[in-house]
């Protein structure tokens, strides 16, 4: 090979190596893909359910969050559910006035068609500790059967007394839908304060 060809050859090899190493590094550092994240830091009780605070991605005129029952308040950058009639709200529901049924759920804007987990931090617990904290997917009612996913739509349920403030709950539901929403709920007389709600796709196994 002529000197010029050798130089070009070496440059080509070096470039290839950099590409391969870059891809390997990117693979090793791959982060879970965030579907949804909320830290409630800038929310207030008055603004939380308005599009001005946070709008649906698919419709800027509609809020991301709907109160579906009970009392929902923002306290010190966290969301407090209960105690008056419990408290519940949906995330990503696009049709708030339509209750989900065994055959139909209103359209949500979260793509939960791939394996995912819902993560939320428990800031405080109170009220009647026998009451339960619950999470639903594609169900905006209080009855687990009111979803095309059936009773599986209630993807999490624990009495408040079995939870600990300062810990994080991780849920890996088996309910999948490309047009999903979730609902967070505490039953009547219970109080739970939550922060740092996160939905991420599970990392694919290598
Ligand atoms: Ca916060």
Structure description:
With 206 residues, this protein is mainly β. It folds into two domains: 1-30; 33-201, Galactose-binding domain-like (Jelly Rolls, Sandwich), CATH 2.60.120. 13% of the residues lie in helices and 40% in strands. It contains one helix and 15 strands; from the N terminus they run H-E-E-E-E-E-E-E-E-E-E-E-E-E-E-E. It has one helix at 3-28, and strands spanning 34-38, 55-56, 59-63, 65-70, 72-75, 78-81, 87-91, 110-112, 116-127, 132-137, 154-159, 168-171, 177-180, 182-186, 190-201. The strands form four sheets. Strands 1, 5, 6, 9, 12 and 15 form a six-stranded antiparallel sheet that branches. It has a five-stranded antiparallel sheet with strand order 4-7-14-10-11, with no helix packed on it. It is elongated and about 85 Å long. Calcium ion (CA) binds next to loops.
């Amino acid at each position: 090979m002529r000197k010029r060809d050798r130089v070009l050859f070496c440059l080509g090899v070096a470039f290839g190596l950099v590409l391969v190493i870059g891809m390997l590094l990117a693979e090793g550092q791959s982060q879970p893909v965030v579907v949804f994240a909320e830290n409630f830091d800038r929310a207030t009780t008055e603004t939380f359910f308005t599009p001005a605070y946070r709008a649906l991605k698919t419709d800027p005129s509609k809020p991301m969050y709907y109160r579906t029952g009970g009392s929902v308040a923002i306290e010190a950058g966290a969301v407090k559910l209960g105690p008056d009639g419990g408290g519940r709200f949906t995330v990503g529901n696009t049709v708030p006035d339509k209750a989900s049924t065994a055959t139909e759920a209103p359209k949500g804007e979260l793509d939960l068609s791939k394996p995912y987990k819902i993560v939320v931090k428990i800031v405080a617990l109170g009220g009647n500790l026998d009451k339960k904290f619950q999470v639903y997917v594609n169900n905006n009612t209080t009855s687990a059967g009111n979803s095309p996913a059936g009773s599986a739509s209630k993807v999490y349920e624990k009495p408040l007394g079995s939870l600990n403030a300062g810990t994080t709950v991780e849920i890996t539901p088996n309910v999948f839908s490309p047009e999903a929403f979730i609902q967070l709920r505490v039953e009547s007389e219970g109080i739970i304060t939550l922060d740092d709600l996160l939905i991420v796709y599970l990392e694919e196994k290598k």
